[in-house]
Design brief:
Blueprint lengths: L2 E5 L4 H12 L3 E6 L12 E4 L5 H7 L6 E4 L7 H4 L5 H21 L4 E7 L29 H20 L3 E6 L2 E2 L12 H11 L5 E5 L5 E3 L1 E2 H13 L7 E3 L4 E3 H12 L4 E5 L13 H7 L7 H19 L4
Parallel strand pairs: 1-2, 1-4, 2-3, 4-5, 5-6, 6-11, 7-10, 8-13
Antiparallel strand pairs: 9-12
Helix pairs in contact: 4-5, 6-8, 6-10, 8-10
Bound molecules: nicotinamide-adenine-dinucleotide (NAD).
The site of nicotinamide-adenine-dinucleotide has 26 residues, from helix 1, helix 4 and strand 5.
């Protein structure tokens, strides 16, 4: 039996990943500041601990760990990482986690490590044209991310790459692009656009109004959680290919278009009021040429299908929250 450890196992992607690894027959230890909020963890062992502490990191990696998935980070949606208000803590918290993790992987002889980097590492100047963003892996340098979060992710990549070069850590790096699905943050200030829009639309009556930050013409692509897990697992299983590689969707949509799609699923017609707020770059979409060439991976779930599943889940949370059930 293979032994896996998931850092960030109380979070959105981490809790789904634990479930996936259990289904595949792994023994799994989860580690996080908190247990998953929307389901019981399926991990065999769950340490509630702070990974900014090197002793917690070392304790979590005791035993012979075949695979570590490093997903723990101080992060959130645009309101959290693009407002600038949390920059110091985002950099401090996540850098500490990654520095201790890389070092402990050597000391504890972890076989293989997945690091969750982000589309936010890409230069801002390549994402000014909403219809034609440039995000192939090679375009990361010269570096010019538009957020402290992006800089820290790039720093994290460099930390693990240095540990690979000098100390033999077997690292795999995926640059995740806007992952969404059920059981993610939806109402705590850390939610991202799909969850935030699903919540707003679920909360208003047919004919009502919601607010969108910016003019809504900024573009993004969104990847459903199941597709993301398939890509992470394919990367980890591959003998030689290590990335960094994009894990995202190439199906670009404007934020207004995303809102309209959610309205269709909700069966509501709702007015959009555009207000000022943090929006991030103008255009962003994954470039999947490399991942397709190396892992033959491409998303299976369309935005239409994935948003339908996500809206149903968030609508149930909103209904339960407002005591209407
Ligand atoms: P999430 O916020 O739901 O999960 C991150 C988890 O890390 C949280 O449960 C949090 O409690 C935990 N954590 C934070 N600080 C910690 C600490 N000091 N000690 C222990 N645990 C700590 O986020 P997610 O969406 O599941 O993202 C997982 C990873 O993927 C993150 O590294 C994130 O930066 C990266 N990523 C996610 C997306 C996305 O669209 N969701 C996109 C790009 C990159």
């Amino acid at each position: 039996m293979k032994y896996a450890v998931v850092f960030g196992a109380g979070g959105f992607i981490g809790s789904h990943l634990v479930r996936r690894l259990k289904k595949e027959g792994y023994w799994v230890r989860g580690v996080d500041l908190k247990r998953p909020e929307y389901s019981l963890t399926e991990a065999d062992d769950f340490i509630v601990g702070d990974l900014r502490s090197s002793s917690v990191v070392r304790q979590a990696l005791q035993g012979s760990v075949d695979e570590l998935y490093q997903l723990a980070a101080d992060m959130g949606g645009a309101g959290y990482i693009f407002s600038g208000e949390n920059d110091a803590k985002v950099m401090h918290n996540s850098a500490l986690i990654n520095l201790h993790t890389a070092q402990a992987c050597v000391e504890c002889e972890v076989e293989k490590v997945f690091y969750s980097s982000s589309a936010c590492i890409y230069p801002e100047h390549n994402q000014r044209d909403s219809m034609n963003p440039k995000l192939n892996e090679d375009s990361a340098y010269p570096a010019a991310p538009d957020s402290a979060y992006g800089w820290e992710k790039l720093f994290g990549e460099r930390v693990y790459q240095a540990y690979t070069k000098n100390l033999g850590v077997h690292i795999k790096i995926g640059r995740l692009h806007n992952i969404y699905g059920p059981q993610g943050a939806w109402n705590n200030g850390k939610e991202k656009a799909p969850a935030a829009l699903c919540r707003k639309i679920a909360e208003v009556e047919d004919g009502g109004e919601i607010e969108i930050w910016g003019d809504g013409l900024q573009t993004r692509s969104f990847l459903f959680i199941d597709d993301c897990l398939d890509a992470i697992r394919a990367l980890m299983k591959h003998e030689a290919f290590c990335g960094p590689v994009n894990i995202g969707s190439e199906q670009m949509v404007t934020i207004n278009g995303l809102a309209n799609l959610i309205m269709q699923h909700a069966g509501k017609s709702i007015k959009i009021r555009h207000v000022s707020g943090p929006t991030g770059v103008r255009g962003r979409s994954s470039d999947n040429a490399l991942i397709y060439a190396c892992l033959s991976w491409q998303p299976k779930i369309s935005l239409h299908e994935g948003i339908g599943i996500t809206y149903q889940w968030i609508n149930r949370q909103v209904t339960a929250d407002s005591g209407l059930q």
